Amino acid sequence: MSEAPHVEAHAALLKGPAAISDGFDAADVARRTKAVLIGSAGNLIEWYDIYAYSAFSLYFAGAFFPQTDPVAQQLAAASLFAAAFLVRPLGSALFGYYADRHGRRNALTAAVLMMCFGSLMIAATPGYASIGVAAPLILALARVLQSLSQGGEYGSGATYLSEVAHPNRRGFYSGVWYMTLIGGQLCAILVLLALQRAFLTPEQLKAWGWRIPFVIGALLSIFAYVIRRDMPETELFIAAESVIRRENRWRILARDWKTMALVVGITIGGTSAFYTYTTYMQKFLKLSVGLNDAQTTLITAGSLIFALILQPLYGALSDKIGRKPMLVAFGVLGTLGTIPLLTTLRHTQSPFGAFLLICAAWAIVSGYTSIAAIVKAELFPTAIRAMGVGIPYALTVAVFGGSIDSVALAFKNAGLETGFYWYAAGCIFISLICYLFMRDMKTHSKMSQVL
């Protein structure tokens, strides 16, 4: 085809004039909002399962890894967490291809079911003392299943979100969708807080209590599977399906290699910052700042609530001023502010001061997180959107996101903790270069293109 048809208007016509009008239509808003929330609920549950591993690794690391040094145990658990990220690109390729060929809904339903199996395996696996080296091997297999699922979730989920959201409110709904990603970690932290403060002693948590969140995660995954089966397929995919079914998606993807490289550049700084202030921050507060378990959990939960609030606000702002200004602001402030923020946080003596510093970091990082999904989705046509978003994103997260805990702890073990601060700032600077030279996707979106 010499020219890609504009299917967005075609898709909107399937629902009548209200769907293509810029004005307010209650029925259209309700329909789109319901679809976004159902898709996002599954996303929350998927990310809860992932973050439960990180949040509870302080308790289960000793059960799977026999080292006596707590930092060494955490490093082993973090290394496995990072290694499992290496299969996420495979998950993105498999589920992304399935989503682009057979529909976004089908891919998302299959992804959450695989997450259920991974969580159940972690919950049921005996410790090293019982079955020896088989324990960490089974744990590794479970993490592989979770990572395959998560690799498929991001690309398919971001695609579904972008295609069901109103064209003039995609930034806002991107923020809503990212709320569920952060909300997944918040739920894991709240489960940890409840077990710490109300139900179990530290000894019970280390002995068997750490299994509880993975049982909860498996049950929630089953719930997500049930509600996702009834999700409506996106109109953009339905309208384009007859055209793209005849095309070779891998050939189209290869043609867009420069765009995929841009996704890598966009993601490096954002994913390194995100994992610094989520998965690693809990360990940083305990091992480096010296706070106790209760303080660490409360500060992490409080800062995540703050981050949660920012996502739709920043996303809505991008609908007004564009995506590029938000990304550039994150790039500049993140490059200049990461080292001072982490240095000050490392030496703070006040839990409340630590909370404020992490909130300041989130005020910067949210310039990326709130719109990351929609920016990437707007870069690709309908035929390869799930693959185009998911594969380069997963590759980048595997190298620069999932490795954050391992990199930070390795710097700490070597007595060079400040080196990690420079590393994190350098990652953001790389992305800043991409932000400065890319087009604003709010005005140059490919959402209406088929091929």
Automatic annotation (TrEMBL):
Keywords: Cell membrane, Membrane, Symport, Transmembrane, Transmembrane helix, Transport. It is a multi-pass membrane protein. Residues 35-442 form the Major facilitator superfamily (MFS) profile domain. Its main location: membrane. Signal peptide: none annotated. InterPro entries: H+-coupled_symporters, MFS, MFS_dom, MFS_sugar_transport-like, MFS_trans_sf. It is found in: Cell membrane. The chain crosses the membrane at residues 47-65, 77-99, 128-145, 176-196, 208-227, 259-277, 297-314, 326-346, 352-375, 387-408, 420-438. Coiled coil: none annotated. CDD domains: MFS_KgtP. One of its GO terms (molecular function) is symporter activity. Pfam families: MFS_1, Sugar_tr. The keyword Cell membrane applies. One of its GO terms (cellular component) is plasma membrane. SUPFAM superfamilies: MFS general substrate transporter. This is Alpha-ketoglutarate permease. It comes from Methylocella tundrae. The lineage of its organism: Bacteria, Pseudomonadati, Pseudomonadota, Alphaproteobacteria, Hyphomicrobiales.
